[in-house]
Amino acid sequence: MRAAGPLTTDRPTSVAVVIPAKNEAERIEATIEAARRIDGVDLVVVVDDGSTDATAAVAMGADALVVRHKTNRGKAAAMATGAQLVAMREDAHRADGGEAFREELHAEPRVPGHTGPLPVIDADGERPRALLFLDADMEGSGTAAQPLVDAVLGDGVDMAIALLPPQDGAAGLGIVVRTARSGILRATGWEPTQPLSGTRCITRETWDACQPLAPGWGVETSLTIDALTGGFWVKEIECDLHHRATGRDLSGQLHRARQLKDVLRALARRRHVTPDEPAEDDAATPSAAAPQAAATGTSTSQEADAAPGATRLDPVPADPAPPVPDPAHPGPAEVPGAAEGADRPAPVDAAPDSSTTASDGSATSSIAPARPHEDDTDDEDAWSVTPDTGADDRADRRRAALQALPVAGTFSDDQTRALGDVDAGRLDGQLRALPVAGAFEPDDVVLLAGVDLDALAERLRSAPVSGPFDPQHAVIIASHLDAPEPVLPPSIVPPLTADEYTSLVVHAAVDAENDEH
Predict the structure, then answer these.
(1) What is the spatial distance between Cα 415 and Cα 418, in angstroms, rounded to a whole number?
(2) DSSP reduced 3-state for 315
(3) CA 190 from chain center: how many Å?
(4) Residue 282 DSSP symbol
(5) Directed axis angle between helix 175-188 and helix 498-516, to 10°?
(6) Pairing state of beta strands 15-21 and 363-364?
(7) CA distance 209 to 230
(8) What's the DSSP call for residue 213?
(9) Lateral strand order in the sheet of 234-238
(10) Is the pLDDT of residue 47 over 90?
(11) What is the chain's percent helix, strand, coil content, to nearest 5?
């Protein structure tokens, strides 16, 4: 281990390996044994993500800490479960006192009313372990992840990503990698070499800052974007790791299509995080918040519109000119003594409702005198602010209109903002016109809102497919509308299944892209 430098203070001193696994009974034991041989690793967790074989039993036999999902919930969920289990183990260890726990007997009680032994626990506590995610099929090559651990524990890297050598039998189409790489580049300005590499070591601080994870196979893309936009150090490091590669058969193409869908959904979310700011003694004032909003490229008025229950305060000049009454456009109530009382905090007494109605029917905020305290002096006036409910009403109506779409689940605030001013009624009609059985995920609707849905409907109706498409098929095909129609191989006789046709669409798009290059 290298000597500690300025970037290695207060760093984790150990690593927990998290291995998401599904139907890996033949390989999981060798992978666990390799993980234990990595210097710095003191805990191995296996998350059995709905396996139908003996993966969990073999992992327990290899003395790993095992947790099992009853059904397959996807890679992101398995990673989150493993990280949560590590945190629970650490909390339980701290509750027991840890290795530094001891009891001391004293002749005189050190705590009033307590005469028994007193626990003495290390005040510094234990630093949370870093997390190393390994694929379950890496077997003995898993020890080659050592450089990732060294970078995080010794060099101050916040997230180290493995660069794998060419894999035997790999027949990747490349479109998923290119999509993820270009999306990360647009979002962060950094171009990764292997954006979909799932073998990575990450500090707990970085992991917590990147929550919630993007679902499914989009987790690596979202982790990279969120860590970089959060100001953390992300580095790719060469590691001689090997795992089972995905082929070009139908199963491999469908796997890649699911990857592409999840990556597109992760990029569409356009999520950004920032590390927690240090606490300040004094509360932030509106004047101090304005430069911060300008530095981050946001608008304070937009934030007030987006935040439920937000109160909007307009600046009052120190020496306001006498207002000119206008019956058609009533202005805010006059504020006597605003200059001399500007630095005083406003009392919290309730004030009579003095909100006005603008010409467009939306409510506006105004400042009105409140009932003074009995002990208030004549030169101290109390004021209260009436909340602006117009923005809340508009946001509620917007959410209700979007929720009427054929969607499974509720739109988050980020997804609602991503849809912008899209015509919800027109979008609803276009989505329901698609020959699709089932409801779309909110992320899928955000993606489809930017697609020519009329062209997508025509493509799906003309496809030589028996029966309706699933929503995930429609999303994948929508991302390749610019590609030519797939040509059916002579060995395939229509009608096709939706899975087969979707696979051919992805294959045709890749061939067209390869021809361009």
Answers:
(1) 5
(2) coil
(3) 19
(4) S
(5) 70
(6) unpaired
(7) 8
(8) P
(9) 65-69, 41-49, 15-21, 130-133, 200-202, 159-163, 234-238
(10) yes
(11) 40, 10, 50
Both structure tokens of 289: 């918040």
Cβ(190)–Cβ(184) under 8 Å?
yes
Averaged over 15-44, what is the pLDDT? 95
Residue 446: Cβ-neighbour burial (10 angstroms; 0-12, 13-18, 19+): buried
Indicate whether 104 pLDDT > 70: no
Give the Cβ contact number of residue 33 at 10 Å.
17
Adjacent-strand bridge partners of 46: 19, 66
Give pTM, 2 decimals: 0.55
Angle among Cα 26, 78, 60 to the nearest 5 degrees reads 45
Confidence of residue 421 (pLDDT cuts 50, 70, 90): confident
Greatest Cα pair distance, the chain, in angstroms, is 94
SS3 state at 298: coil
Looking at the DSSP bridge assignments, the partners of residue 45 are 18, 65
User: Cα(first)–Cα(last) distance of the chain, in Å?
Assistant: 45
CA-wise closest residue to 472 among 484, 489, 460: 460
Entry field: residues in the chain: 517
Buried b (16+ CB within 10 A) or exposed e, 152-165: bbbbbbbbbbbbbe
20, 82 contact by CB (below 8 A)? yes
Q: Which helix (H) or strand (E) holds 498?
A: helix 498-516
Inter-residue contact 107 to 117 (CB < 8 Å): no
At residue 464, what is the residue type? P
Both tokens of 449, joined, read 């809102």
Alpha-helical (H) ranges within 198-320 are 204-209, 219-229, 250-269, 286-295, 300-306
Element containing residue 45 per DSSP (H, E): strand 41-49
Q: How far apart are CA 171 and CA 507, in angstroms?
A: 12
Amino acid at 285: T
119 band by pLDDT with thresholds 50, 70 and 90: low
Residue recorded with tokens 């990764």 = 192
Structure confidence by residue, pLDDT tens digits, 137-184: 999 999 999 999 999 999 999 999 999 998 665 444 467 888 888 889
Please list, in sequence order, all residues whose beta carbon lies within 8 angstroms of the beta carbon of residue 352, skipping any fewer than 6 positions away.
368, 370
Q: Output the six-digit token pair for 442.
A: 């909110």
CA–CA distance, 152 with 145 (Å, rounded to integer) = 12
Backbone angles phi, psi at 350, to 5 degrees: -75, 145
**Whole-angstrom Cα distance, residue 176 to residue 173?**
8
